[in-house]
Specification:
By secondary structure, the chain is mainly α. It contains 18 helices and no strands. The chain has helices at about 10-25, 30-40, 45-75, 75-95, 100-115, 115-130, 135-140, 145-165, 165-185, 205, 215-220, 225-250, 260-285, 290-310, 315-350, 355-365, 370-380, 385-405. About 60% of the residues are buried.
Amino acid sequence: MKSASPPASLSTRMVVLSYAAYFFYYFTRKHLGITTNALIESGYSENLIVLTQTGYGVCYAIGQFMSGSLGDRVGPRIALTTGMILSGLASLAFGIFPFMAILAVGLTLNGLFQSTGWPNDCKIVAEWVQFKHRGKVMGAWMTCYVFGGLVANMTAAYILGAYGWRHVFLVTGVIVIVVGIVQAMFLINRPEDAGYQIERRKHHDLENLKPGTSAFMLMIKQPIILLLGLAYTGQKFIRYTFFAWLPYYLAQSVLLSNENSAYVANGFEVGGVIGLIIGGILSDKYFSDNKTRLAFFSLLALIGAIFFYIVISKTGGFWGNVCGLALIGFFLFIADSIVSGTAAQDLGGAAHTASATGIVNGIGSMAQPLAGFVPIMLKNTWGWNAVFVCFVCVTVFSAIVLIPVSFRKQVLRE
């Protein structure tokens, strides 16, 4: 006879599995950015990379809405497994057949495959972790995408230097396929599927839904959800500009080697890890009723961090760039984790987290395609500093949008 609550070991196992899933999603998300300069040196055009990054962003944004709704309907295990395997196959295809058409089509469609990760991994955590511990757990859990990006950078940098860019796509593709198969074998959608129960926070709006009513439609009608999504556009634009173009910037403007550019770019992720952990602790301890207030303060600090990096990037050398990027990552990821993760989870509840996080991430991801071409357009017209001034502008926009939410007494709906 199983106990009412799942044993801590089982809950921990599910959280760790979901952590591993999103960690390894980044192996087939960061590889194109790491190899961009090498691809251009090999004869692929900058315009082709711009087209692919933009197409990826469009597919990712569309996929967020689809994947969140799908995860709430069929469960996150199927969505995660399918997305990871298809993402790995897209990477393998370009490594085996390095044609321009495969690059443009396969890595554009990879945006759809990658979109299965965030809403469904967030749903796993919401299903297995009680709401009163979620800020702290999510603060630690959300290091998955920062550590994932960091290790993906280092792995790709090593393979790029030792074996060339084709092997980057081959190795990362195989790794992600294997992890996807592991998710299919061991992941459990929710405690009830294993015969357990977990304490839930009541959401009266969701409990009173009529049969056949879509929780997705309820979530998308919530003004706070829409404001969170709109605020997330600025953070998403900065993150994916860094993912797509930071190593290229470091190679072209700071004049680092391709390999060192990938290593220096890790400073962004290192700062993000520290920010996520500290932000998670602070949000539970001091901002439990309204975590978006901490996100607002972090965005204000991010503006100062960007100006600091503009000053130090050209003269700071290897370690100056690492520290400057770490400071940006620290404040950006605190805001990012709250807006796209814990605040959306609090509003959606465990049963509908995939829809809530999918909507927030989907709206935010509408800015992601801009990260594919706007930075290069700004660079070609006014130079790289214009890109960072653009970062300041979108951060100010995100902070302004958050004002009506962050100064509410609470955003939880009991």
